[in-house]
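Troubleshooting log. The previous run stalled partway through. Resubmitting the same two chains, unchanged.
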Amino acid sequence: MFLDSDLLMSALRALTPILLAALGGALCERAGVFNIGLEGMMLMGCFTSVATSWFTGSPWLGVLAAALAAAAYSLVLAVGAVTLRGDAVVLGIAMNLLAVGLTSFLLRTVFGVQGTFDDPSLAGLPLIGGFTPLAYLSWAAVAVAALLLSRHVWGLRLRGVGEAPDAAATLGVSPAKYQYGAILLSGVLCGLAGAQLALGNVTLFTENMTAGRGWIAVVAVMLGRAAPLGVLLAALLFGLAEAAGFRLQGLGLPQQATDAAPYVVTLGALFLTTARRRRRPRTTGAVQ
Amino acid sequence: MTRISGALRSPLTFSVLAGLVIGALFLLGTGADPVTAYRAVVTGALGADGIGSTLTTGTSVLGLALALAIPLRAGLINLGGDGQLVLGGITAAVTGLHSPLPAPLTVVLALLAGMAAGAGYAVLAALCENHFGVPLLVSSLLLSYPAVSLASYLARYPLKEPGSSLPQTRALPDGVALPAFGDSTVTLGLVLVVIAAAAYWFTDRRTAVGYEIRMTGLNPRFSAYAGVERRSLTLKLMALSGGLAGLVGAIGVLSFPYRFVDGSLTAPGYTWTGLTAALLAAAAPLGTVVAAFFFAVLQVGGLAMERTTEVPRELTQVLQAIVIVFLAARLRFPGRWFALTRRRRGSEAV
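Second attempt completed without errors. Output:
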């Protein structure tokens, strides 16, 4: 049987990094900041988690360091797009490029290796019931984000900032403050996503190991209309595509075909959903 | 004089200088002497041993920089350069291997086929935006992955060179190659790309179409009001963009090593370096040429720096990205960028 619980389990494992990053992206989107730097922030998280886990022997410190490092990195977007009112799209692209260069550079200077750092003594995250604790955290984060955005005053103000920054400012809500908050939170979430990828899904660091997952997360935000539950469904779709790809590879399909599957599925889903709703509020990095 | 002082105070100069200073800090951090390292970059890329390599790399970087600059001029970002590039390359390889025409005509046919493949694939991304509302930025990027996978599959299975352990196609027949200059690896491809740059400059500066494209980048609503049809403009610009990316792929295959090698077109990161160059120049034609050359020097010089100072060549990639981070943080949108920062410059220490 092709669709079975094993497939679902591996889909759930594959979706965790996407989900964490996409939740961060959704918060930014709601605050009116288009964050396409998710990929780069994730990659920073990957490297920091591996480096910290290796030097301290604790994957937990690795997770913590990844969250902090990615949050610090997200300040580039916050300062650039919110304070200096730069172009968020260009900044995001540059941040993704910078992360690839920086992590490859650090890989060479810190570990003296090129390509992949893979050491048996590198401690990965433990599994509880087949999942890392970060996977459970990601599901909890969906619920928290959903409640925050729909019920809590912080979430309501965040949405207000994204939808009508001038009105929010008139009511004494500082758009910049909420946008900084959303971007920093997205940094933390992307850091966790990176840690999950490098210490959970596998236990190693490879150059550019996010391989487009941050971009898939950006798409998941669009697909899920920046709502936590919608984002979860979109990430599940990606997880299923990746898991099904692995399964098909076992059945003899070439790896190149299965590598492409998640992107094709994501694009297909985008066609089906965006065609039905053409007009959406546009977000830019700049507060008008 | 005012022009010189203006150039020195421009955000562009500031960003490049900031990038170089931060790069120097990185170098100090690794225990290297920045002056020695930077000198190694410049002499390695522009010295007698490196200039050929710089011009070869520059051909690809400039080609992709132009490919991405042309839509960027109208405010459209094509992130699918990799996919368009490899499809152009693999199509040129297939054409070169199977064309019944005499060698010189086969070269022309392979170039055209590569351009057509790249253009067709880029148009697909434009159609996604026009008819399904998927933003071009996202559709072009997502489409890139299956294309790279497809080319990789073709080079590893159906088109693989029999008996070889490398993922590559057979070598092109004798004579199916772009003429090279002397003993160097620099081919006629450089001339083709320079002609494309000149055509872009002429169109941008001297024609109504170029004016329309610039206006669309500066103010899409105004240009729509003035009668510029955005959808067809997107389609045309993406076709041109993908065609140029495909041309670079075809040039890559028709130059040394005269075959399609899986990963050899994408691994050097021409797409991203090209995009960085186009962004740095705000897609202006002459600026794009200068920026592409600057980044080709960095890329080739980085290797020389690695040899002489043992600083990883990835540093040059960091440098490129830092320059764009600084530029993006201070600027806003193609064309509008400079006007806005000029107004704010008074309060900033440059």
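Takeaways: Residues 332-350 of chain B have pLDDT under 50 and may be disordered. Chain B touches chain A at residues 26, 30, 77, 79, 128, 131-135, 137-139, 141-143, 145-146, 149-150, 152-153, 156-157, 272, 275-276, 279, 312, 314-315, 317-318, 320-322, 324-325, 327-333 (CB under 8 Å).
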